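Forum > Structural Biology > Help requests

Title: Can anyone predict the 3D structure of ATP-dependent Clp protease adapter protein ClpS?

Hi all, first post here. I have the sequence for ATP-dependent Clp protease adapter protein ClpS but no way to get a structure on my laptop. I'd be grateful if someone could post the structure tokens.
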Amino acid sequence: MTPLATPDIDEVVDQRASVDPDRNWQTVVWNDPVNLMSYVVRVLREYFGYPRSVATTLMLAVHEQGHAVVSEGPREQMELHAQAMHDYGLWATIRRVP
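Reply #1:
Sure, ran it for you. Structure tokens for ATP-dependent Clp protease adapter protein ClpS below:
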């Protein structure tokens, strides 16, 4: 049996450049026709612990711009936040930090 040939590699590839586990993700809450603005403020205060002023600013962004980034961090944590928003009845997704 002949050994397999190993091709010569001329290019050095930095694997960290294509997959960066530390790259942040975002939880995005989207506007919907169902939930009251006061309810969205309550959810953001209760779940994230935001002060009323921050929760109100985020809610207004959701209402006026259609969405708001409510949290940033590791992907797994953002997935948990998005699921929690779903449990509260809000529309939420995650995305990589642009």
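The chain is about 45% helix and 20% strand. Strands lie at 25-30, 67-73, 91-96.
Shout if anything looks off.
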